Amino acid sequence: MSQNIELVIFDWDGTLFDSVGQIVASLQYAAQQFEQPLTDDAAKSIIGLGLPEVMQILFPQVPDLQQDILQCYADHYVANSKGDAWFSGVAELLADLKQQGIKLAVATGKSRKGLDRVLSQTNSHQIFDITRAASETKSKPDPLMLQEILAELGVAVECAIMVGDTSYDLEMAENLNMPRIGVSYGVHSIETLQQYQPLTIAHNVQDLHVYLQSILERAAITES
Known about the structure:
The chain has 224 residues and is an alpha/beta fold. Helices cover 47% and strands 11% of the residues. The chain has ten helices and six strands; from the N terminus they run βαααααβαβαβαβαβα. α8 links the parallel β4 (160-164) and β5 (180-183). The chain starts with 6 loop residues before the first strand and ends with a helix. It comes from Acinetobacter modestus. InterPro entries: HAD-like_hydrolase_sf, HAD-like_sf, HAD-SF_hydro_IA, HAD_2, HAD_sf, PGP-like_dom2.
C-alpha cells in the first residue's frame, strides 16, 4: 500500500481499550437479574454493535425488558470498569502517529456518554481529532460513522485506515472500500476477520504499531 495516509480510525473496545472481559461480565450480570439465558460467547460476539442492537440480538424474547436490561448492564459496567485501561503500547502508538501529523479518530459502538467517560478515564479527549459513537449515528457495520468522520476532517476514503477487532469494524470499512486492519487480540477470530480482506491482522499492539509505521514509511518513499 503506497497511498499517502492522513487518518487512522480506531475502534475502542477490544482494539484500544482492554474492556472485553468487563463488558461480558456486565452483560451476564444484567441477564441474570432478569433471568434471561446468555452464554459468554454470545455476549462477546456482539461487542462493537450499538447497545440497542445488542439488546435486540441477545434478548429478542423479551422486548419489553430490553431497556431495563440495558440500564442494568450500563450501571454495572460503570461501577466495575474503573480499572479498565488501554492495552499495553496504545499510548505510545497514538503519540507516535500524532507526532507524525496523522489525524486520529474513534468509531465505536459505545454511546456518546460511555465514550466520553472512557476518554476522560484515559485522559485522551485531546488526542483524537474526532470521535463518533453509535448513539449519535448508525451502528456498525453501516458505514455512516466513517462517512461522517471523513467529511468532517476532509479526508478521502483511500487516505484513511480503519483498525478494529470485529467483523463489524472491517465490514463497515469494506462497505466504503476503506483500507482496513484487523487485530486478533480482541473479540473476533482471525478466520472471521480474514473474510473482510484486511491489509494485515496484528496480533498485539506492537505488531500494529510496526505495520502502521511501515505503511507511513513506504508512502513517504513513494512521495519522494
